[in-house]
Amino acid sequence: MQAPDRSPHVVIAGGGIGGLALALTLHQIGVPCTVLEQVSELRPLGVGINIQPNAVRELNDMGIDAKALDHVGLPAREWALVGRNGAEIYAEPRGLEAGYNWPQYAVHRGQLQMLLYEQVRARLGPHAMRTGVRVTRYENHEHGVSVHIDGPGGTSEVIEATLLVGADGIHSAVRAQMHPDQPAPHWNGAIMWRGTSQAAPVRGGSSFVGLGSVRQRMVFYPISPVDPETGLATINWIAEVTVDNSDGWTSADWSKQVALEDVLQHFKDWQFDWLDVPALLSGAERIYEYPMIDRDPVPTWVDGAVGLMGDAAHAMYPTGSNGASQAIVDARVLGSCMIEHGVTPAALAAYDARLCEKVSALILRNRGLGPFGILNLVDERCGGVFDDIDAVIAPEERAAFVADYKAAAGFAIDALNAAAPTIAPGARVPV
Q1: What digits encode the pLDDT tens for the residues 55-94?
Q2: How far apart are CA 188 and CA 366, in angstroms?
Q3: Which pLDDT tens digit goes with each residue over 184-212?
Q4: Model-level pTM greater than 0.90?
Q5: Is a pLDDT exceeding 50 seen at residue 337?
Q6: What is d(CA 214, CA 247) in angstroms, rounded to the nearest whole number?
Q7: Containing H/E element for 177?
Q8: Which of 27, 125, 163, 279 has the most CB atoms within 10 Å of its CB?
C-alpha cells in the first residue's frame, strides 16, 4: 500500500487581497498552496482603499513594485481633516513626503485584487486558485486538517491539507466554526455611501481629506492620476451619517445600490469655494450603501491546524484606512512564522501570539474613530464651530493624537524605517 502524501500543503479559504497576498508569500518561501474562492469569476469590484507604507513595503518585498501599483492607483501625499465650515483642523504629509522609505498608495480595491490574482496565476500557475467553491467547515486531525467545500451544482468534496487559513471575510465560515458563539457584526449607527466620480483633485492634488463632524462627514481622495486633457481624476468618496442604531441593522442587504437622492439630501448645502460636494456626489455612475460594521475581537485566531487572517480575523471600521494593509501584513507575518517553525500548527500559534492581541486592540481603537477621533475632540470642545483651531486643540495635541494611532497600527515612521524585513530576501521554509 502506498503511504499517504505528507508533503506540506496550505489551503487558503478566500481569494481577496489578504488571501492572494498569502499565496504569493507562500510561493516566495517555497510552500505549496491552493486558494479556494467562492465567486465563479473575479472582477475588479469595489472602490478606493488606502495601502499604508508598512503594507506597501510588504508588497514590494513580494515583488509588487511601484510600476505595478501605479497601474491601480497613485501615491497619497497628504492626509487632512477639515471642519464643517471648510476650515482646516489638521494636515500632514504622507508616504515619501512624510519621511517614510515607502509611499502610501490610494488604489482601486478591485484593481489591486486583480493585480495580485494575475501575479498568483503567473507565479503559481493557473490551477493554484479554484473559483466557484466555498469552504464550509473543517476537521482537525493528527496529520493536519480536512477541509470541506461546496462546489458548483451542489457538489461537495473534502481536501486534505497541512494547514487551513481562513481569509474568507467578515462573514467567514471558518471563523464561525472556530468561534460559534460570536455575536452578529457590530454596527455603530453610521451609514456609508460610496462611489467614484470624475472631478478635479483638491488641495495638493493627491490628498486624503476628511470633511465634517463625527455625525456627518465626507472622505475623498483621488485613486488615479489627473488626465492631462480634462484636468480630472477618479475621485473615490465616502459619505457618512450617524443614525439611531438601537434596533440594529434592519435591512436584509449588507450592501446595495441606491439612488443619488438618498445621499444627496444629507449634503446638498455642502458647498465651499474649494469644493462642491453635491457636484462631486452627482458625478458618480453608481452609489452603494453600507452599514459601518466590524466584529468583536476574539481571544485567538487559531484552532489547531486552522488560522484566520484579514477580515475573517479582525474586521474593523475603516476609520484608520488600514484594513487591507493589515491583511497584507498578516500574510507576511504568517510566512515569517512558517520560516521559523515550518508548516505546522506551531507557526500558526506564533503568528497568533504576535498579532492577535495587538490587532484586537486596534479594532476597539477604530470604534473610537481612529485618527478621525480628533473630530470628536473638536465637537466636544466647541460643537464643531471654530475660528482658530489652535484655540480649540493645540497643534501638539493634534499631532500626538495621530502619531499615537500610527504607532498602534504599525506604521510609525521611525520604527517602520528601522525595522528589518518581515521576510529576509531569499528566506525559505526548511524542507
Answers
A1: 999 999 999 999 999 999 999 999 999 988 889 999 999 9
A2: 11
A3: 888 889 999 999 999 999 998 899 999 98
A4: yes
A5: yes
A6: 21
A7: helix 173-178
A8: 163
| C-alpha–C-alpha distance, residues 184 and 171, integer Å | 9
Residue whose grid cell is 476650515? 87
Half-sphere exposure of 43 (CA within 13 A, CB side): 5
Which residue has cell 468583536? 296
Cα within 13 Å of Cα(325), Cβ side: 26
Tell me the DSSP string of 87-145.
Answer: -EEEEEE-GGGGT-SS-EEEEEHHHHHHHHHHHHHHHH-TTSEEES-EEEEEEEETTEE
By three-state DSSP, how is residue 144 classified?
Answer: strand
Identify which of 128, 112, 121, 126 has the alpha carbon closest to the alpha carbon of residue 59: 112
Is 328 within 8 Å of 21 (Cβ atoms)? Answer: yes
Q: Give the C-alpha separation, 166 to 173, whole Å.
A: 8
Phi, psi of 214, deg, nearest 5: -70, -25
CA distances to 76, 83, 118, 388, 415 from 405, in Å: 18, 20, 34, 24, 13
Q: Which residue has cell 508616504?
A: 95
Does residue 386 contact residue 87 with C-beta atoms inside 8 Å?
A: yes
Q: What is the DSSP string of 302-340?
A: EETTEEE-THHHH---GGGS-HHHHHHHHHHHHHHHHHH
C-alpha of 215 from chain center: 23
- Give phi and psi for 327, each to the nearest 5: -60, -40
Phi, psi values for residue 401, rounded to 5°: -60, -45
